[in-house]
Automatic annotation (TrEMBL):
InterPro entries: GH, GH_1_N_CS, Glyco_hydro_1, Glyco_hydro_1_AS, Glyco_hydro_1_beta-glucosidase. Its EC number is 3.2.1.21. Keywords: Carbohydrate metabolism, Cellulose degradation, Glycosidase, Hydrolase, Polysaccharide degradation. This is Beta-glucosidase. It comes from Streptomyces anulatus.
């Protein structure tokens, strides 16, 4: 197994051929990971504020109380974004900052921050792209049952209406949820993300209520927008599932992985139904989706765009390492097979060709226009003696995945944009501040931002591409 990062390549910026003139270039962040000001101006605790205080839950006992101090440094950060030459900035709103406790009237001070952010972006010619929910559920709603409880979906739709009323006159691009798989499975089944629960039944109920929340919020946003421009979507973390061999066991393992990771979300979102084979797999574990009349119609609200967060594809086997086709629980084995591929500091395989395959598959099976709303890599960056941050591994990662988007478009995939993750190093959830995904380095002691070489490459590549297509 190759634990080294992608081979070092010195890449010169060059125009990316094969993209339309209106292709979107962006960077992305999320509220809890960068904002800080966790107890200022009326913000109440989220599930991540609580989870970070659980001993052993987060690397080094770290938390987002200060993070990148974006709440106080926002104008400086927007200037930095503008200097990268991107046309779009994807960021998330903090639900407990806008609607403390997850219900009731809006918090004017919290909304004012986002109004100022949007105004700063417009002033620099940058399109704001809002994500309503990037995992920071108000703790009071978790105390009332969290996403496994149906009421949370209803509260989310109300929150969406509050946010749109304040910002809808100046923001056209709205994403409801970021990565509901992570919210449900990492948070409620595996316990490694907030709120740290470990119950697959709860997680599956959370899946349905997250999707229902999306559908109800989508309806509320469209009603509020009326005839005003609105591009509405959801963002999913998606990958590929490849069988290790052509055996029936390995193909079945891929079916199960694809069912729980992709089709459980996209089939109801686009086709208005849950996949029958996944329902059967869950029934074998005595788990049932809590669907009520009208839910699937709400979930299948039309999507203008599908946000795709891609980090890796995976190889699967249907037999355990000891050769057994079933695990200790008596269920069929679905095992990730490690490959001898370059890896990131997250120990994730680097698989750009599988991004092409994914995008072509999404076009074939779901035919919704896509935007890469997150793609990037953590590496162990080192600051050079002159203060620069040479990160050829990250530059190569970005270049290879942008090339993968071009290849997907050449095969008919309607991909309309690429947003690098992340704008800056930040709080990386259960990894604390140990993993750095940013194309901009943050010195957490001084909060000084430094463009890494990858940021300069991205900036110059965007400029040359625009000049080439003008």
């Amino acid at each position: 197994m190759n634990l080294a990062p992608t081979p070092q390549r010195l890449l010169r910026p060059a125009p990316v051929r094969g993209l339309p003139a209106d292709f979107r270039w962006g960077v992305a962040t999320s509220s809890y990971q960068i904002e800080g000001a966790a107890a200022e101006d009326g913000r109440t605790p989220s599930i991540w504020d609580t989870f970070c205080r659980v001993p052993g839950a987060v690397e080094g006992g770290e938390h987002g109380d200060v993070a990148c101090d974006h709440y106080h440094r926002m104008p400086e950060d927007v200037e930095l974004i503008a200097g990268l030459g991107v046309d779009t900035y994807r960021f998330s709103l903090a639900w407990p900052r806008i609607q403390p406790g997850g219900r009731g009237p809006a918090n004017a001070k919290g909304l004012d921050f986002y109004k100022r952010l949007v105004d700063e972006l417009h002033g620099r010619g940058i399109t704001p792209w809002i994500t309503l929910y990037h995992w920071d559920l108000p703790q009071e709603l978790e105390d009332a049952g969290g996403w496994p409880a149906r009421d949370t979906a209803l509260r989310f739709a109300e929150y969406a209406s509050v946010a749109y009323e304040a910002l809808g006159d100046r923001v056209e691009h709205w994403t409801t949820l970021n990565e509901p798989w992570c919210s449900a499975m990492l948070g409620y089944a595996h316990g490694v993300h907030a709120p740290g629960r470990r119950d697959l039944g709860d997680a599956v109920h959370a899946v349905h209520h997250l999707l229902l929340g999306h559908g109800l919020a989508a309806g509320a946003l469209r009603d509020a927008a009326g005839s005003n421009p609105l591009e509405l979507g959801i963002t999913l973390n998606l990958g590929t599932a490849t069988p290790e061999t052509g055996s029936e066991a390995d193909r079945e393992a891929c079916r199960r992985a694809d069912g729980m990771g992709t089709r459980l979300y996209l089939d109801p979102l686009v086709h208005g139904r849950y996949p029958e084979d996944v329902i059967a797999d869950l029934a074998a574990q005595h788990i049932e989706l809590p669907v009520r009349e009208g839910d699937l119609t709400a979930i299948a609200a039309p999507l203008d765009v599908l946000g795709v967060n891609f980090y890796r594809g995976m190889l699967f086997s249907g037999v355990a390492e000891d050769g057994s086709p079933t695990g200790a629980d008596g269920l069929p084995v679905t095992r990730v097979v490690e490959r001898d591929l370059p890896r990131t500091a997250m120990d994730w395989e680097i698989t750009p060709a599988e991004l092409t395959d994914l995008l072509v598959r999404l076009q074939r099976d779901y035919a919704v226009p896509t935007v890469i709303t997150e793609n990037g890599a953590a590496f162990d960056d080192t600051v050079a003696a002159d203060g620069s941050v040479p990160d050829a591994d990250r530059t190569a990662y970005l270049a290879d995945h942008i090339d993968a988007v071009v290849a997907a478009r050449a095969r008919g995939a309607d991909v309309r944009g690429y947003f690098a993750w992340s704008l800056m190093d930040n709080f990386e959830w259960a990894y604390g501040y140990d993993k750095r995904f940013g194309i901009v380095r943050v010195d957490y002691d001084t909060q000084v931002r430094t463009l890494k070489d990858s940021a300069k490459w991205y900036r110059d590549t965007i400029r040359l591409t625009r000049d080439d297509t003008a």
